[in-house]
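User: Design a sequence. Structure:
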């Protein structure tokens, strides 16, 4: 598995959100006073300057709620005399209003989606003063306020964080943890401790976990507001990450002191363990795929250390990740590309990043000091935050590193392409160490919001986003990214009306699950008709037909992407219209690996395949497939009702461009009947047309090397006429050749029969030969060479037997049912022609035994592969 690593330092707190098609930045002026609450905007690009009359403020506690962005500035030197709340309407950049702020300095904020309220916390300067204010997010008024100081007297007691547990709001503060009822604001003390600094809290597994930064303890609070466990860790813990596989949390300090331990809390038992890594920890990152925690450190060690997620043991150094630099910073993972990123804490304008690809190290250069980096899975680019560029008068910048793959082979790289200046200059290098930073991607937009702490402003950067291009005529599509939760349906009209330019006339055809009945939504002029197809979903496919004169249309995607491992159910006896929602190009046979043995047929817009065998003994015929792209559709017919997950092999497939016929014209009409034709290779035509009653019902352009071509047949259902073919040779001296008689393959007798096809036969597909052959050679995509896998079920070992007609490099890979690589038994190793039997122990590369379950084993060479399902006990 590939892992990419980049080290990150945390100096300034930064929030990023993403939207449309440019990479630019602008600015707005507001005040530094108190609480900013803004309506989110989808198109404009700007910066919100919180400096105003008083520029000595720091932004903290950014929150996103629905269509709004909120931020609290942290007044660390207590000189805010404005006491105002400024409101900026993002839909009207010049509409700025203000109203009195309850207190001068806010320190925490929280949005509750259960009661639709904003909870703002303040510094405490005078005993008895209210320190929590409840705000209405629509008119910005104060709904209520309360004094949450129960235990303390006149002592600094700032609110540090809010969390929600049932109907209670948990407030962690400098000297106490308290809770109040959201309905009646009744207050209850949970724990007290002068200067304990209950700094941060998180709600998980029906509990709230609160860190005390001075005492080094972790308190666990249940729904009855009881401290059910107080764990003394021995040092102040600040940061952590969650292991959902094992229900564990990894905590660590992050100051330049003795912080070589990673503490591991089991949230099911509240037991705690720790691992000493021998050097100062800079970050801990958990990878759910490998079930491992990766630990970087502030030291001259050039390795990322690895902790086993199940056993909590530090793995041997031979399994650590080797770098070419020490002193790594913060890490993060991009699971869709199997990469880990780390940013180096360089203090000079030099290289800042390293990519680790299977232990081979390469570098990315950014021409400035960089402290924060994040991968954007929505456009595959990386964004780097530069707090001061010495070569440009110390201005702040954000660089965009663009992923380029000119050969379209999955082996691309990141290059520095674009940058934008944030117009803030003379950043103090020491000031950057006072506050933490981060880059957060909002899946519902495509903008970068940069909170520039030392300058008290927010920069908004507009980035290139996802979109799909449609052509006039027929488009086989899906909607991989929609504004919804999970795979919930979305109103059809709300999606289609975002097409640019909006067509005057369009039709969207779809099918519901477990049915072959077509349902349609249409637009004619200004009239919409969506009753037949009121909603769309990402797992389904659709045929969009546009009749406007424009040659190309664009649909900008918005909302969240569907999780790549979302299962799709396909139903026996039906042709299932399925959407492809993985954000990378793939060979369709690779993408369908998990379900290929269960399929009777596959249809794409320009290619098709049919299984002429059985589940246990498949025999496929297929024209050359076109790669699957993000937002494509396939029509699948299974032997039995089953569910599958798209496999992520990252094999992009062969690049192909569809060329339609020029001589023969026909009108595509949605779904089609595949007509596979073996052309006469002794006299190859340029085009082949199919006719019923002198009307062209389909045609295909023939390439010189084609041995099998596909006519997408739109055969009329009610006609009793025969199907007649015509060869076109493109030469006036050669007349068109009408083919009245041809050979049709009989699946039962397994021979070609000389006969004519009647239009009312209604077969699922036809296999025709113009060569006059009485025998049929099966073109077997899924079984290009004999392979046996035994025993099955297997327990400790697996044997793979295969026969090669010629010498070739072989790869044998084991996948779990979710399409993730479990083990690579053979990686592109040469084997001579002949019979081979290979035996492998059922274990992963780390030596751990493979878990019980259903798996898929894939044996491949060159462009051929065979798939077998096996059970491991």
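Assistant: Done.
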């Amino acid at each position: 598995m590939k892992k990419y690593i980049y080290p990150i330092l945390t100096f300034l707190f930064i929030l990023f959100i993403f939207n449309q098609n440019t990479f630019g930045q602008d600015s707005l002026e507001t005040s530094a006073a108190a609480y900013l609450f803004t309506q989110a905007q989808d198109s404009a690009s700007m910066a919100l300057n919180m400096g105003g009359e008083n520029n000595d403020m720091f932004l903290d506690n950014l929150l996103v709620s629905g269509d709004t962005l909120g931020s609290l500035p942290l007044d660390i030197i207590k000189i805010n005399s404005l006491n105002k709340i400024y409101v900026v309407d993002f839909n009207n950049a010049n509409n700025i209003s203000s109203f009195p702020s309850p207190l001068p300095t806010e320190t925490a904020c929280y949005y509750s989606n259960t009661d639709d309220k904003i909870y703002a916390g303040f510094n405490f300067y005078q005993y008895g003063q209210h320190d929590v204010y409840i705000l209405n997010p629509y008119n910005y008024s104060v709904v209520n306020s309360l004094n949450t100081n129960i235990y303390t007297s006149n002592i600094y007691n700032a609110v540090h964080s809010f969390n929600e547990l049932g109907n209670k709001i948990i407030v962690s503060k400098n000297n106490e943890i308290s809770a109040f009822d959201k309905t009646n604001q009744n207050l209850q003390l949970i724990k007290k401790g002068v200067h304990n600094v209950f700094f941060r809290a998180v709600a998980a597994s029906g509990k709230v976990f609160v860190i005390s930064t001075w005492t080094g303890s972790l308190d666990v609070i249940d729904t009855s507001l009881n401290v059910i466990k107080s764990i003394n860790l021995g040092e102040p813990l600040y940061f952590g990450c969650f292991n959902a596989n094992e229900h564990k949390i990894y905590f660590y300090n992050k100051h330049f002191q003795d912080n070589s331990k990673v503490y591991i809390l089991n949230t099911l038992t509240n037991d705690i363990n720790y691992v000493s890594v021998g050097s100062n920890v800079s970050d801990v990152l958990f990878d759910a795929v490998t079930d491992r925690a990766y630990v970087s450190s502030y030291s001259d060690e050039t390795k990322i250390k690895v902790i086993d997620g199940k056993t909590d043991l530090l793995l041997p150094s031979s399994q650590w990740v080797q770098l070419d630099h020490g002193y790594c910073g913060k890490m993060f993972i991009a699971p869709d590309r199997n990469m880990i990123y780390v940013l180096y804490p360089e203090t000079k304008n030099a290289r800042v990043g390293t990519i680790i690809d299977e232990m081979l190290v390469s570098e990315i250069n950014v021409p400035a000091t960089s402290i924060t980096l994040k991968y954007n899975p929505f456009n595959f680019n990386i964004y780097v935050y530069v707090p001061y560029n010495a070569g440009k008068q110390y201005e702040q910048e954000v660089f965009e590193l663009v992923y380029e793959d000119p050969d379209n082979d999955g082996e691309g790289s990141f290059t520095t392409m674009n940058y934008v200046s944030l117009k803030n200059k003379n950043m103090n290098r020491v000031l950057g160490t006072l506050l933490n930073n981060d880059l957060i991607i909002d899946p519902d937009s495509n903008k970068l919001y940069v909170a520039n702490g030392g300058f008290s402003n927010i920069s908004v950067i507009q980035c290139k986003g996802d979109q799909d291009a449609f052509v006039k005529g027929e488009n086989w599509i899906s909607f991989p990214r929609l504004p919804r939760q999970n795979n919930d349906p979305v109103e059809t009209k709300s999606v289609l009306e975002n097409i640019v330019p909006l067509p005057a006339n369009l039709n969207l055809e779809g099918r519901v699950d477990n049915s072959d009945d077509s349902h349609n939504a249409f637009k004619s002029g200004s009239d919409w008709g969506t009753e037949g197809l009121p909603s769309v979903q990402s797992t389904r496919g659709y045929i969009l037909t546009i009749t406007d004169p424009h040659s190309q249309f664009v649909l900008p995607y918005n909302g969240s992407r569907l999780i790549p491992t979302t299962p799709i159910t396909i139903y026996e006896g039906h042709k299932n219209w399925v959407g492809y929602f993985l954000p990378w190009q793939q060979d369709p046979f690779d993408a369908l690996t998990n379900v290929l043995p269960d399929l009777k047929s596959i249809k794409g817009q320009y290619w098709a395949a049919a299984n002429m065998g059985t589940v246990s003994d498949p025999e496929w015929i297929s024209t050359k497939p076109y790669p699957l792209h993000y937002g494509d559709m396939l029509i699948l017919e299974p032997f039995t009702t089953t569910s599958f997950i798209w496999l992520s092999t990252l094999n992009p497939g062969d690049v192909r461009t569809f060329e339609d016929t020029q001589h023969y014209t026909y009108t595509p009409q949605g779904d089609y009947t595949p007509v596979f034709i073996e052309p006469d290779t002794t006299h190859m035509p340029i085009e082949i047309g199919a006719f019923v009653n002198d009307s062209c019902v389909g045609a295909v352009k023939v390439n010189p090397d084609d041995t099998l071509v596909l006519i997408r047949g739109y055969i009329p259902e009610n006609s009793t006429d025969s199907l007649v073919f015509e060869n076109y040779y493109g030469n006036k001296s050669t007349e068109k050749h009408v083919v009245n008689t041809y050979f049709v393959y009989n699946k039962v007798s397994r021979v070609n029969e000389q006969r004519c096809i009647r239009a009312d036969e209604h077969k699922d597909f036809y296999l025709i030969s113009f060569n006059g052959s009485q025998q049929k050679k099966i073109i077997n995509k899924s079984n290009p060479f004999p392979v046996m896998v035994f025993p099955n079920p297997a327990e400790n070992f697996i044997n793979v037997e295969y026969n090669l007609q010629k010498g070739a490099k072989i790869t044998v890979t084991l996948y779990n049912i979710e399409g993730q690589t479990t083990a690579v038994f053979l990686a592109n190793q040469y084997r001579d022609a002949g019979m081979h039997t290979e035996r492998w122990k059922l274990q992963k590369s780390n030596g751990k035994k493979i878990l019980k379950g259903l798996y898929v084993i894939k044996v491949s060479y060159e462009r051929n592969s065979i798939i077998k399902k096996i059970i491991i006990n």
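Residues 673-769 form a domain with the Immunoglobulin-like fold (CATH 2.60.40). Confidence is low (pLDDT under 50) at residues 1-81, 346-362, 426-437, 774-784.
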